[in-house]
Amino acid sequence: MATLPAAPAPARDRLIQAAGEVFGDQGFDGATVREITRRAKVNLAAINYYFRDKEELYLETLNHAMRTIFVRTQPEDLGTTPAEQLLAYISGLLQRILNPARPGWHGKLLARELTSPSRLLNVLVETFVRPHRDTLHKIIRSAADGQLSEMQVSLAGASVIGQCLYYRNCRAVCERLSPEILEAPDYLDHVAAHIADFSLAGIAAQATSAPRHQ
Amino acid sequence: MATLPAAPAPARDRLIQAAGEVFGDQGFDGATVREITRRAKVNLAAINYYFRDKEELYLETLNHAMRTIFVRTQPEDLGTTPAEQLLAYISGLLQRILNPARPGWHGKLLARELTSPSRLLNVLVETFVRPHRDTLHKIIRSAADGQLSEMQVSLAGASVIGQCLYYRNCRAVCERLSPEILEAPDYLDHVAAHIADFSLAGIAAQATSAPRHQ
DNA sequence: AAACGTTTGAAACAGTTGTTTAAATCGGGA
DNA sequence: TCCCGATTTAAACAACTGTTTCAAACGTTT
Predict the structure, then answer these.
(1) Which of B173, B180, B189, B195 best probes binding to A when mutated, by most A CB atoms within 10 angstroms?
(2) Residue B10 region, left (φ>0) first, then alpha (ψ -120 to 50), else beta?
(3) Is strand C within 7 Å of residue B46 (CB)?
(4) Nucleotide nearest to A50 (CA to C1')
(5) DSSP alpha helices (H): ranges in chain A?
(6) What is the CATH number of domain B71-207?
(7) Which residues of B touch A204 (CB under 8 A)?
(8) Which CATH superfamily is domain A71-208 in?
């Protein structure tokens, strides 16, 4: 079972790794198969040998990134109180899309796919994003003691996700506009704590003012 | 001064218009000069005649979009109370990047530029985004009665912007995940009201719990 | 050793890309 | 009317794109 420790990754894996980096940096159109194969140290024809074509390589790479970003979790796994659960949810999401220790292209690929979707978006949303979102909605409902309408839950969920994705989608702008946020080595924890507190207050305000039961 | 009413737009303007649509839909690399010129009803060589090359056309188009999205305003122009000002700020921003009555490519181009910046990003941020952000920060400070540290103001600002841009960057996902939000014809007003209320509560919570004066 | 399917290699393919060229056309003043 | 700059046109250019081809090399099984 256990292979030799220093065995070089097989060509197919190296291709996905290199493709992730290049697609993440340049996008699907900007990336060239020649750069990908050069970086993966494989022959030019390898892409069409291991994958049908450039697009299938992209879809495979995207699928790989989504699987590691959207790990399935239930609210109960994240903590006992809704506040704990929300913080853990946000912190986990931020880590998976922004932690520089992880391969950076996971988050980059996700950001690109969200803004300019490929034909894989539908299955992607249903397979990965919706279950993840359901967990978030459960947390929000319990944080508001069940006093929110479904519409209000959706809006609150969008607010939480929007705040998180800002640091991924608009990182370049944030670096120039608010570098103080990103300077601390553990800035992800600070940001997660802020988003959690900020959102909990927002949810509480939704629950108190004009609660609609539906 | 007044030209004939039905005078067709000059070729250069038609080029920027068509380029905006194509760049917005396909991105810089995905767009082809042939499609742009075809849509603008202009000869292929017109791009290199009116602009140096494809890139300068892109930068010119981007500049055009930014100028209409980021209109300079002061908090006092938006309302008397901080709550009014914040709502007006959010509502205005959402309208400019999402209102289907406006040319849709303005917002699309902005979203693309934020996630994969061109070499214009620096000047863009300083010219358009920073003044706009300063206005938002002023509103946040007054909404919190001056009780927030600069870091807290920055975080709150990122939260507000993040919530707004979510509906632009992740529109495709939102359509599939929470279509009920986007269904109403005046959904932009609902969303703006939600983001304003949600954020005001978040800011108030920041101001009360552990306020840091710095 | 021979034969096998699998993987790699270099070269070439056809199509598309952005850009350039130079001739043709237009619109007003001299 | 003629001339001249500005604009438009069609054609061609070289460079690059994704993909294919087919032979060479490899590793395992007869």
Answers:
(1) B173
(2) beta
(3) no
(4) C7
(5) 11-30, 33-40, 46-50, 54-69, 75-78, 82-98, 105-115, 121-124, 130-143, 150-169, 171-177, 179-183, 187-208
(6) 1.10.357.10
(7) 201
(8) Tetracycline Repressor, domain 2 (1.10.357.10)
**Are A114 and B165 an interchain contact pair (Cβ–Cβ within 8 Å)?**
no
Residue A150 CA to residue B151 CA, distance in Å, equals 33
Nearest Cα to Cα of residue A156 among A208, A206, A193: A206
Cβ of residue B193 closer than 8 Å to a chain A Cβ: no
For residue A190, give both structure tokens: 């600070």
Q: Report d(CA A201, CA A212) in Å as an integer.
A: 18
Going from N- to C-terminal start, the domains of chain A cover 11-65, 71-208
Which residue is nearest to the C1' sugar atom of D20, using CA?
A: A45
A71-208 matches A11-65 in CATH topology: no
Cβ–Cβ < 8 Å for B47, B53: yes
Output the DSSP codes for A192-205. HHHHHHHHHHHHHH
Tens digit of each residue's pLDDT, chain B (214 residues): 333 344 567 889 999 999 999 999 999 999 999 999 999 999 999 999 999 999 999 999 999 999 999 998 999 889 999 999 999 999 999 999 999 888 999 999 999 999 999 999 999 999 999 999 999 999 999 999 999 999 999 999 999 999 999 999 999 999 999 999 999 999 999 999 999 999 999 999 999 986 544 4
- The CATH classification number of B11-65 equals 1.10.10.60
* A143 touches A164 (CB < 8 A): no
Number of H helices, E strands in chain A: 13, 0
Whole-model pTM?
Answer: 0.92
Q: From the CA of A35, how many Å to the C1' of D25?
A: 24
Q: Which of B25, B121, B159 to mutate to test the interface with A (most CBs of A within 10 A)?
A: B159
Distance CA A198, CA A187 (A): 16
Q: Which residues of B121-131 are buried (b: 16+ CB within 10 A; e: fewer)?
A: beebbeebbee
Q: Which candidate in A22, A163, A168 is best for mutational testing of the B interface (most B CBs within 10 A)?
A: A163
Taking the C-alpha atoms of residue B32 and residue A77, their distance in angstroms, rounded to an integer, is 49
A176 to chain B, closest Cα gap in Å: 8
CB-nearest to A117 from B26, B30, B172 is B172
Task: State whether residue A32 sits within 8 Å of chain B by CB.
Answer: no
Both structure tokens of B31: 């767009």
The encoded tokens of residue A14 equal 């190296």
Among all residues of chain B, which has the CA nearest to that of A207? B198
* Contact list, B69 vs chain A (CB under 8 Å): none
